[in-house]
Design a protein that fits this description.
Layout lengths: L8 E4 L9 H19 L5 E6 L2 H9 L1 H14 L1 E7 L23 H17 L7 E4 L11 H25 L4 E4 L10 H12 L2 H11 L6 H8 E6 H6 L4 H10 L4 E6 L1 E5 L4 H7 L11 E5 L4 E4 L2 H10 L5 E9 L3 E4 L2 E3 L1 H13 L5 E4 L16 H18 L8 E2 L1
Parallel strand pairs: 1-14, 2-3, 3-4, 4-5, 5-6, 6-7, 7-14, 12-15
Antiparallel strand pairs: 8-11, 8-13, 9-10, 9-11, 12-13
Helix pairs in contact: 1-14, 2-4, 4-5, 5-7, 7-8, 13-14
Length: 412
C-alpha cells in the first residue's frame, strides 16, 4: 500500500508462502495476497513483494504469455509489484535450508545470470512510475571467503549486473535497482562492513571504470550510475542481531551515500539476561529448517557469534554465565514486544521507523516474517493472513502516526 506523505510503499514478503516453483508461487499469490489486501487496503491499490526463485525466473523469462497473464491478473486485482525477493535462488520451503540459502553466491555466473533474468521480468511487469528493487543475498557465506580473488569475483559479477541494469534502462526506459542485504555470518554482516565495501569496491574509481567499459558510459557518468542502481536492503532484525544501533546505522549509510532501496521491518528474539530458565525455553526454537544466527554480548560489550541458536545453547551449558544477553535470528511477528520470558527487538524497529518518518530513508518498506510456518505451535493463534495483516497494520500505524507505539501490539 502507498503510505501518505511520501512515506513509501509498504507490503509483506511473499517469501512466507510456498513459492519454490512458479506454479507454487502463482497459487500462493492468488490464494493469500487478495485476502491480505481485503483486510488492509480494500479500496486502494496494494503493493506486492514477489518471491522469484531461480525456477520462477526461468519460467517467466521464457514465457511471454505467462508474464502477460501475471500482469493482467495483478491489474485486475488492484495489485502492483514494486520489489522482488531474489535472495534464495533455490528451494526455501519444506526442506532443511541452513547455509544452502546462500548458494549459488555472487562469485558464480549463475547468480548474476539469475539476477539479470529477474530484472528483465520486473521491467515488464511493474507499472509506470515504480522503480522496482531486487533484494539479493550478501555476496557470500563469510566462512567461504578466504581470498582476495573470491572478493574480486563477486564484486565483478555485481558490477556486471549493474551494467545490465544500466542497459536495461537505456533500452526500456525502466530503472531496476539491486539491493544487497547484510546478514549475520555473511561477507556483509554489519553496517560498518557494508559501508566499507561500498566505499572501497562498488563506489570506487576502479568500479566506475569497470562500469563505464561494460555499459558503454562516459567515465564521468559512471559514479552516478553506480549509486543509481546499487544499494542495500536494511533488515532491522539482522542488524539488531549484530547489535548495530539502527538509527546510527541509518546515519552512517547516509553519510557515505549508500542508498537504502528497501527498509525491512523484521523482529528478532532478544534475551536481555541469559539464565537456565531462558535457555530451557529457547530450546523450543531450535527445531527449524533455517539458520538461527545468534550473537552474545557480555556486559563489557564483547560480542561472540554463533551460527545457530543450538550452538549458543551448547556453549552456555558448557560455561553458564549470568552476565550476557542474546539476540537470535529467528523472525517473530513485529507487533509482539515479548514472547513468553523473552523480549523482541520491536523497540528498535519503532526507533528506525520514527527515523524514517523524520527523514525518508527509503521508498520501499516491507515486513519479512518468513518463519511463520516454523514458529513453535504455542505462538500460532491465527493463520498466516491474520499475522501478516496485523504486522502491516502495526507498521502502518507506527509510520503514519509518526511517533510512539500503536494500539496494536501484544505478547505471546
Amino acid at each position: 500500500m502507498r503510505l501518505p506523505d511520501a512515506l513509501g510503499d509498504l507490503t509483506y514478503s511473499t517469501l512466507v508462502h510456498a513459492g519454490d516453483t512458479w506454479p507454487e508461487m502463482r497459487e500462493s499469490l492468488e490464494t493469500f495476497v487478495p485476502q491480505v489486501k481485503a483486510r488492509v487496503s480494500p479500496d486502494r491499490p496494494f503493493g506486492v513483494s514477489l518471491r522469484i526463485s531461480g525456477d520462477s525466473a526461468r519460467t517467466l523469462s521464457e514465457d511471454a504469455a505467462e508474464r502477460r497473464r501475471l500482469k493482467e491478473w495483478l491489474d485486475a486485482q488492484g495489485l502492483y509489484v514494486y520489489t522482488v525477493n531474489a535472495f534464495p535462488q533455490g528451494a526455501f520451503k519444506n526442506r532443511v535450508v541452513m547455509e544452502d540459502v546462500y548458494e549459488p553466491d555472487w562469485s558464480t555466473d549463475a547468480r548474476a545470470e539469475y539476477t539479470c533474468r529477474v530484472a528483465d521480468v520486473l521491467a515488464e511487469i511493474t507499472p509506470d512510475g515504480v522503480v522496482p528493487s531486487i533484494q539479493t543475498m550478501p555476496l557470500a557465506y563469510k566462512p567461504k571467503v578466504t581470498s582476495e580473488e573470491y572478493v574480486q569475483a563477486f564484486t565483478r559479477n555485481v558490477l556486471d549486473v549493474a551494467a545490465h541494469l544500466v542497459d536495461l534502462e537505456r533500452r526500456t526506459g525502466r530503472r531496476v535497482v539491486l539491493a544487497i542485504e547484510p546478514e549475520p555470518f555473511c561477507y556483509l554482516e554489519t553496517i560498518a562492513e557494508t559501508v566499507e565495501y561500498f566505499d572501497t569496491r562498488l563506489f570506487s574509481g576502479a568500479a566506475s571504470r569497470h562500469l563505464a567499459r561494460r555499459a558503454g558510459l562516459p567515465l564521468s557518468e559512471a559514479p552516478a550510475a553506480l549509486r543509481r542502481h546499487l544499494g542495500i536492503v536494511l533488515d532491522m532484525g539482522h542488524q539488531c542481531v549484530e547489535f548495530d544501533d539502527l538509527t546510527a546505522s541509518l546515519d552512517l549509510l547516509a553519510d557515505h551515500g549508500v542508498p537504502i532501496f528497501k527498509l525491512q521491518a523484521a523482529a528478532a528474539l532478544w534475551v536481555p539476561t541469559v539464565g537456565e530458565r531462558e535457555v530451557a525455553e529457547l530450546e523450543r526454537f531450535t527445531d527449524t529448517i533455517y539458520l538461527s544466527q545468534t550473537t552474545q554480548r557480555a556486559q563489557d560489550g564483547t560480542l561472540q557469534r554463533f551460527l545457530n541458536l543450538s550452538d549458543a545453547i551448547a556453549a552456555w551449558r558448557a560455561d553458564p554465565r549470568d552476565d550476557v544477553e542474546w539476540r537470535t535470528h529467528f523472525h517473530v511477528p513485529v507487533f509482539m514486544d515479548a514472547i513468553g520470558p523473552f523480549r523482541t527487538t520491536r523497540p528498535m524497529i519503532e526507533d528506525a521507523l520514527r527515523a524514517h518518518v523524520a527523514t525518508r530513508q527509503s521508498a520501499h518498506l516491507e515486513i519479512e516474517t518468513y518463519t511463520w510456518d516454523v514458529l513453535p505451535a504455542h505462538l500460532k493463534t491465527g493463520d498466516v493472513v491474520d499475522y501478516v495483516s496485523r504486522e502491516l497494520e502495526f507498521v502502518r500505524d507506527v509510520v503514519t502516526r509518526g511517533a510512539g507505539s500503536p494500539q496494536e501490539g501484544g505478547r505471546a
